[in-house]
């Protein structure tokens, strides 16, 4: 969408918001409703010019439907008639249930402005029958509200009451559907949260298991006192070297002379510390690839 396309959509949306405010003021019989409706018409007119310059027929039709309703609310029946005539000529090219509904509502309001309320009711009734279930949700409620208003204006209070009851029933149905959807959404979110919690617990359990395996592997291959590799680890290292024909290595066996005297004279605790210190010294002198074990 180009800059003009974005501008037309922006102006169209602003016009629609302004029109909704004008309709609210009109329902409250506020005198400034005409002024606000004129402002909505100005916005919609800009959207029409921008859509036409982009040759965007659909936006042009929708913007003109907003323009027509604003013109009706402002009391300009002639301008609204010209706008609706243009839309009617191009309606087939942009045929959709929602656009047709908006056209019928705009036409109904124009007919009521022209004191042709009976024709307005007839058109809405036909539109309701023709569109059937193709229009749902707020759009269908809008159609029913417009029909109630037109029937009341034509003094057909019995039909207005029947349509109002239909609208009330449909509102309750939509509320039930919305409640059910919210419940399903809530259940889905709760299930997702449970799945995430379960996944997190499994991850923590896997991490703890990995840590435990690492500890066990270390304990299985390390001397508990000095922390140096034990005999098992030494045998694995030697087996790996012996399996490599190109490997060259040498082995040295070291022993601590008179170590028993240390244990006998200074206790086994001191002897253990001596072993740890000597193990640390040997480990500190290792080169890459060297192995020292106890």
Describe this structure in words.
There is one protein chain. The chain is an all-alpha fold and 294 residues long. Helix 2 runs antiparallel to helix 3 and helix 7 packs antiparallel against helix 8. The longest helix is centred in the middle third of the chain and has 65 residues. 23% of the residues are buried.
CA-based gyration radius: 42 Å
Quick one: how many beta strands? 0
Q: What separation lies between the terminal Cα atoms?
A: 75 Å
Question: Mean pLDDT, as a whole number?
Answer: 90
Count, helices: 11
Order of helices and strands: HHHHHHHHHHH
Biggest β-sheet description: none
Topology (elements, then pairings):
Layout: H1 3-27, H2 33-53, H3 57-73, H4 77-90, H5 97-113, H6 117-131, H7 138-153, H8 157-221, H9 231-242, H10 259-266, H11 268-284
Helix pairs in contact: 1-2, 1-3, 2-3, 3-4, 3-5, 4-5, 5-6, 5-7, 6-7, 7-8, 10-11
Provide key terms for this protein.
294 residues; rod-shaped; single chain; mainly alpha
Summed up:
This protein has helices at 3-27, 33-53, 57-73, 77-90, 97-113, 117-131, 138-153, 157-221, 231-242, 259-266, 268-284.
């Amino acid at each position: 969408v180009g800059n003009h396309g974005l501008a037309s959509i922006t102006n169209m949306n602003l016009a629609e918001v302004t029109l909704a405010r004008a309709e609210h003021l009109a329902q409250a019989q506020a005198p400034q409703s005409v002024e606000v409706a004129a402002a909505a018409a100005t916005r919609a007119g800009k959207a029409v010019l921008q859509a036409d310059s982009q040759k965007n027929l659909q936006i042009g039709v929708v913007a003109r439907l907003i323009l027509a309703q604003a013109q009706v609310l402002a009391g300009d029946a002639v301008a609204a008639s010209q706008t609706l005539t243009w839309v009617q000529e191009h309606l087939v090219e942009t045929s959709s249930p929602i656009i047709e509904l908006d056209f019928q509502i705009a036409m109904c309001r124009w007919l009521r402005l022209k004191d042709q309320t009976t024709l307005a009711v007839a058109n809405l009734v036909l539109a309701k029958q023709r569109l059937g279930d193709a229009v749902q949700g707020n759009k269908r409620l809008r159609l029913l509200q417009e029909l109630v208003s037109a029937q009341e204006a034509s003094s057909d209070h019995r039909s207005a009451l029947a349509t109002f009851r239909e609208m009330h029933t449909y509102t309750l149905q939509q509320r039930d559907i919305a409640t059910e959807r919210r419940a399903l959404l809530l259940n889905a979110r709760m299930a997702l949260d449970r799945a995430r919690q379960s996944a997190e617990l499994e991850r923590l359990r896997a991490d703890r298991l990995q840590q435990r395996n690492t500890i066990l592997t270390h304990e299985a291959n390390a001397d508990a006192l000095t922390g140096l590799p034990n005999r098992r680890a030494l045998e694995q290292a030697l087996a790996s070297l012996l399996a490599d024909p190109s490997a060259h290595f040498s082995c040295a066996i070291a022993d601590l002379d008179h170590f028993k005297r240390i244990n006998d004279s200074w206790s086994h605790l001191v002897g253990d510390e001596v072993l740890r210190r000597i193990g640390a010294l040997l480990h500190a002198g290792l080169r890459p690839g060297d192995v020292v074990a106890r």
